[in-house]
Design goal:
- By secondary structure, the protein is an alpha+beta fold.
- It has a domain at about 220-374: Peroxisomal Thiolase, Chain A, domain 1, CATH 3.40.47.
- Helix content is about 35%, strand content about 25%.
- It has helices at about 20-35, 40-45, 55-60, 70-75, 95-110, 135-145, 160-170, 265-285, 300-315, 325-330, 335-345; strands at about 5-10, 15-20, 65-70, 120-125, 150, 175-185, 205-210, 220-230, 235, 260, 290-295, 355-360, 365-374.
- The strands form three sheets. Strands 5-4-6-7-1-8-13-12-11 form a nine-stranded mixed beta sheet, sandwiched between helices. A two-stranded antiparallel ribbon has the order 2-3. A two-stranded antiparallel sheet has the order 9-10.
- β4, α6 and β5 (about 150) form a beta-alpha-beta unit.
- α5 crosses α6 (about 135-145) and α8 runs parallel beside α9 (about 300-315).
- The longest helix is centred in the last third of the chain and has 22 residues, at about 265-285.
- The radius of gyration is 21 Å and the shape is globular.
- The chain binds coenzyme A.
- Coenzyme A binds next to α3 and α8.
């Protein structure tokens, strides 16, 4: 048996950024266009007028101030309202692979390792740009990694579930090292015309290198333990799948082909599930709340994270104990907790304990308890 350790992480941040002000301006222009086009029906009472969005609401309800995206021109065009991502030929690298490779290179560089040291690539994300061949195998090929690769999808929990799969294989000895990559193009599955959720998501890619502790060449985080749980719920759902072509009529306008959620229910049901999951995991590992130096939580909503932090620690988290990145990145699905970990873990001291936790559609929740070494 080997001890798995996280030895490197990387974040690829897309070059384009949308502030709440830009987003709301475009959305409200779309509302004006729609209401003008359907003025007669609205007047006759057969159609409801669309309502404006507001910057104040977005910050108050979510804590989000801006988001990065792969294409802002389409999203901000009130006549388009979705990213315009060029269809690439099969001979070119896919867009997810391209983002993931950038994040993976950063993770390898931080660990002081090369492709030759890696035996597995897991591409863990909430949406894949195609059914097959696996995006992970394309990333493996672009990086020149031998061994094997596969895709997995557990929505917002994909990264922690991927880390558990990789850590277990390192522990068992079937691989030396794995790259878990999370290219999340959330802008592609967000309905930018829906006022209730148009502000929620952003794009990013993260990568985590997990290897045998004895192969670490510098400071690293020993994986003490991982724990995953799922419970079926329809409250966060996206029906887009390979069967969509069986209903070609009107498919483009089907609202269920994009991200949908019952946000209030998610808020209410996921909070107790996550708080209990973390408490049980820590108790099983003999980690007391006072032992925990840092919490790197999934980044969906600031109020939710504040609540979970308080519940887990048994007090108000102090500044820096539970870092948020969602004000800059928005919700980046599975990548959120890894961005927080990547940006806010370097200052921990040898022996410090921290916990990564993701949660989301499924419902799903995954936690990873780490101890800083070296
Ligand atoms: N601008 C202005 N007002 C808006 C608005 C917008 N963009 N969107 C909604 N509103 C209005 C609603 O119409 C409603 O008005 P009413 O009270 O007159 O009916 C009011 O604001 C409250 O709407 P609601 O949807 O209940 O807001 P909320 O406080 O629940 O916040 C979320 C919405 C989505 C931010 C919040 O529920 C949440 O974060 N839930 C968890 C989400 C999550 O973690 N999802 C996981 C995704 S992976």
């Amino acid at each position: 048996m080997y001890t798995p350790a996280i030895t490197g992480t990387g974040v690829f941040t897309p070059p384009e950024r949308i502030t709440n002000a830009e987003l709301v301006k475009a959305f409200n222009a779309y509302v004006d266009l729609q209401n003008a086009e359907h003025a007669a029906e609205i007047e006759a009472g057969t159609r409801e007028a669309l309502q404006y969005s507001s910057e104040e609401f977005i910050v108050k309800a979510s804590g989000i101030e801006s988001r990065y995206v792969m294409d802002k021109s389409g999203i901000l065009d009130p006549k388009v309202m979705h990213p315009l991502l060029r269809q690439r030929s099969d001979e070119e690298p896919g867009i997810m692979a391209e983002m993931a490779v950038e994040a993976a290179k950063l993770a390898l560089a931080q660990a002081g390792k090369t492709a030759a040291d890696v035996d597995l690539v897991i591409c863990a994300a909430s949406n894949m740009e195609r059914a097959y061949p696996a995006v992970a195998i394309e990333i493996q090929s672009l990086l020149g990694i031998k061994g094997f690769a596969f895709d997995m999808n557990v929505a917002c929990s994909s990264a922690t579930f991927g880390i558990q799969a990789a850590a277990d294989m390192v522990r068992a000895g079937s691989i030396r090292a794995a790259l878990v990559v999370n290219p999340e193009i959330c802008s592609g599955h967000l309905e930018w015309r829906d006022r209730d959720c148009h502000f929620i998501f952003g794009d990013v890619a993260t990568a985590t290198l997990i290897e045998r502790k004895e192969d670490a060449t510098g400071a690293h985080f020993e994986v003490l333990s991982t724990r995953c749980a799922t419970e079926f719920s329809n409250n966060i759902r996206n029906n887009n799948g390979y069967l969509r072509r069986s209903r070609p009529d009107g498919v483009a306008d089907r609202r269920d082909m994009q991200f949908m959620q019952n946000g209030r229910k998610v808020f209410k049901e996921v909070l107790p599930m996550v708080s209990q999951h973390i408490a049980d995991h820590m108790a099983a590992e003999g980690v007391a709340p006072s032992d925990l130096k840092r919490l790197w939580l999934h980044q969906a909503n600031k109020t939710m994270n504040d609540f979970i932090g308080k519940k887990v620690l048994g007090r108000e988290p102090e500044a820096g104990e539970q870092p948020n990145i969602l004000q800059d990145y928005a919700n980046t699905s599975s990548a959120g907790s890894i961005i927080a970990f990547s940006k806010y873990s370097g200052d921990l001291a040898t022996g410090d304990t921290g916990l990564i936790c993701s949660f989301g559609a499924g419902y799903s929740v995954g936690s990873v308890i780490l101890r800083r070494q070296g």
